[in-house]
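Dear colleague,

As promised, here are the two records you asked about, laid out in our usual form so they can be pasted straight into your sheet.

NAME FIELD: protein one
SEQUENCE, THEN STRUCTURE:
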Amino acid sequence: MKQPRYFAGIDIASASFMVSIATKPEHVLLGPCSFDNTPEGFKALVDWFEQNHLSSQQLVICMEATGVYGELLCYFLHQHQYTLAVESPLKVKRAFKIDHHKTDAVDSIQLAEYAFRFLDELSIWAPRAERVEKITSLISSRELLVREKTQTMNNLHALRRKVIKSAVAVQSLEKVIQVIEEEIKALEKQMEYLVEQDPEINARVDLLKSTPGVGLLLAANLLVLTNGFTSQRSYRETASYLKIAPLQYESGTSVYRNPQSPHYGPSVMRKLLSLAAQSVVTHKADFKKYYLRKQAEGKPKRLILNNVENKLLKIIWAIIRDEKPYIPNYQSVHPKYWKTA
């Protein structure tokens, strides 16, 4: 990225957003200035940029990921060819000391400073393909229904164990569960339909489904994670992003604990990978053999499953890279043993 002259920080709220322009830390050029979070407010923002001679080639805009509150503005700015970075709120928060006022104006100034300090690390935003965006919505809606189903089933279980209960209440919850299950199936059917409508995506999903433990849901989540299999993120970067890569914890000679992966991260992908790992160590001979061997060595169950998750992810990335299906019992050969011509 070419070094910009100006850095804009945008703090998004439901009804409005605050904008500040800086040239470097503690050098605020313009703002903070408030705009309505509407199409008219977006146009007023661009007019404000132009009035102050801030061209899209000289300006980098930084905002926090706030979901639907900032989505329309992102599309608008991208359409007008502005360079836009959307950063994790936690990442931005950790970049500053918490010893000042917390207001929208202060946050917008901090975002402008953040863009200056971390220019080479900014996550430049670009819209995902329409089909990928639709699949993302289906996945989110399905996950919401799955949670609703679990909650309703727990309530039904508790109701059935009561000494005095209402048959009408039991029937009502049973009907709710049935409706939710039908809606989940409908979402999955639509997800499968969208995948099949794109020959390239469908071919790659079929390749992924050849991997043990990988079904439509995990393949669809991988499709979203890689933005239609176009992401340049490596296997190691993806494992780190999903928080399944063990992290070291040591200092000097007195502080040490065994490396372990964090217990947080993208919940849906982590859940599906965990289920896939549990499936293969139960039903696939080579994975089961590995699991039993590590268990005999005294390794914790969670550690073994985490290793299997990493192995599955590595296999998946190799399949995406090589565009070849999974080969059972495949053994790689070190390059030094290859026969030279």
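NAME FIELD: protein two
SEQUENCE, THEN STRUCTURE:
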Amino acid sequence: MKKTEINSTEIAKLAGVSRSTVSRVINNYSNVPPETRDKVLRIIEEHHYVPNASAQVLAGKRTRTIGLFMIEAGHVSSDILSNMLIASVIENASSHGYYVLTHIIRDANNVESVRGVKDIFYQRRIDGGIFIGAANEEPFIEKLIENGYQVAVVDQGLPGRSEPNRIIANFDNSSGMMQAIEYLASLRHREIGLICGDMRRYSGPSKLEGFRMAMEHYRLPIREEWILPGGFSEESGYEAMTLFLEREATLPTAMVMANDSVAFGAMRALQEGGIEVPGDLSVIGFDDHALSSRFQPALTTLGIDFGAMMGKLTATLIEHIEERSTEFTRFTVDLNLIARDSCKKI
């Protein structure tokens, strides 16, 4: 896991180019043939060469900076939850004497975007990084962990992956689903559906599995036509519910949503379709979004203390960076039912 040192002269020899060519590639000059640029960049990446780093960093001293990387194609600035997560990391890092470099990755499949993130690690501009919104097994994140960098991931479950530089924070989705179904069953609901989350992310399949287990536990029938594909955005909830209503299928009496944003979108589609919540359909969300208590009707949901979660994750990452903790770390965040106005007894 230890990263080897190499200088620009050795990079030039390995690439079969001059040292000045290596310099032009590093500084992104345009007068380098594409095939030469790709060859030099490949060797830089393979050997984790650290260009443009300060003498202190090259000497092995810490930058006292952590990275916060959000993988999100939408507008982060307008999302209250995303802003709270960012602020929580910055606040907690500051209390430990660390700075935070933040970056939004619009597309984890974009080669240039991924290369830019890798370079932040390879150039040692940060001592470690936190990733939010990643697919359960994101190749470039796994490569960073393999290369020995300190990496913390929100929402990941990869059996057998327990490297000492991997830190994971998960949600107790099984417990959350059990609480949701228990509550709906207490309101005499038996016909319950689900709008799933993004199945590429860990919470997508884990919430679906939790839903099935909870329905079986309370001996409630599972109807596959009421399990709808979705995501974790308001738009995905709106689209999933709109498509479902267009089929003119029989409605369940209640639905669980992958998160509160999905619930907001689904409830908007229901309203447009003339279906009342909770009069015609009871709805439960996940997360307790800042707007959930002010939504109409106020949304019943599973609350998560995101501030505490991000505080613990940030502190744990810093412990690993400072070598006060040298073991694989994973912790799970509890969820608690918050009953409001979007569910009714039948």
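A couple of things worth noting about protein two: The first helix runs from residue 8 to 15. The chain has a mean pLDDT of 92.

Best,
R.
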